[in-house]
Structure formats: C-alpha cells, structure tokens
C-alpha cells in the first residue's frame, strides 16, 4: 500500500513528476495527526504543545516571534494564547521598554502539562521513526535543516530561536 501521493512508492517505480514540497507537507500532516492524537490525553493540540515548548525554551518571547516560530499568523497565535492563558498555562506581561509588545511566559502549570506530554510525543515520534536506521534518521535531519536554512528559516533545534539574532523574530517589524 502506498502513500497515495504519487511518489511511485506503491509500485516501486521511480517517479519524477512529484513535487518534494508536497511530499514534505503530506509527511508533516500525517505526523501532526499522529502527534495530535497523543496530545489529546493531555488536553493539548499540536500548536499549543509547540507554543508551550517555544515559550519554555525562550521565556519572554513576543507574540510575533511565537507566531513565526510555530508557523502561524499573529492573529491565530493570539487566539490560541487566549485559551492557554485562560487555562493558566501561559501568562502575558507588558514588555518593559516597548509598550506595543507583550512577553510570554510559561506558568508552573504549563511546565507541568508540557513535561507530562513530552514523553508521549517523543515515544510516538520514536514509533514513527522505528523503521529508519540511525544514520538514515541523521541524514533526514541534516537534509531538513539544510533545506530550512536555504529557505531562510532556521530549522527547529538548530540552536536559534525567537530570541536569537538569526532566528525568528530578529526582524525589525513591531511585535505584539
């Protein structure tokens, strides 16, 4: 049984008419669904989990920086943050020097929820990767990092983030 996305994987024949970006998107959507199913037990969605992870790693992140880091719009990030804030997982506070910007912080309850969900996410990812030899996994990670850098975005886990000079949020646009 193949992927249904025209890679030729189901017939073994080499296909040259597929577009790599659509294969990556299909893979991401499939992984997102699998991870999302794991997160239901913890009352989180994939974007909420990504938000908790990002804010935990980068305390004081602005809403605009967060939106770029998790691949959403500021409006969508604001709507999601409202729910996380209502549930006591995130707090927003005014930036000390920029009245247009709010800083985000994870609460102790948010940390507890994130830390409870993380092993389930990691276990599910390990299950999804179980058929890959470690060297192939390393190659895939290196490839994804290279493509992300070539596109002008640091890859997740590359050491840069919302607060870094080269990471998301390093632009000069006003942030909320």
Give the spatial strand order of the biggest sheet.
Answer: 1-3-2
Unreliable residue runs: 157-176
The coarse overall form would be: globular
Question: Helix content range of the residues, please?
Answer: 40-55%
Secondary structure tally, helices? 6
**What is the N-to-C succession of helices and strands?**
HHEHHEEHH
The Cα radius of gyration reads: 18 Å
Roughly how many Å apart are the termini?
47 Å
Defining key terms:
176 residues, 3-stranded antiparallel sheet, mainly alpha, 3 strands
Word description of this protein:
With 176 residues, this protein is mainly α. The protein has helices at 20-39, 46-57, 63-70, 74-86, 108-128, 134-150, and strands at 61-62, 90-94, 102-106. It has a three-stranded antiparallel beta sheet with strand order 1-3-2.
Quick overview of this protein structure:
The chain is mainly alpha-helical. The chain is built from six helices and three strands; from the N terminus they run H-H-E-H-H-E-E-H-H.
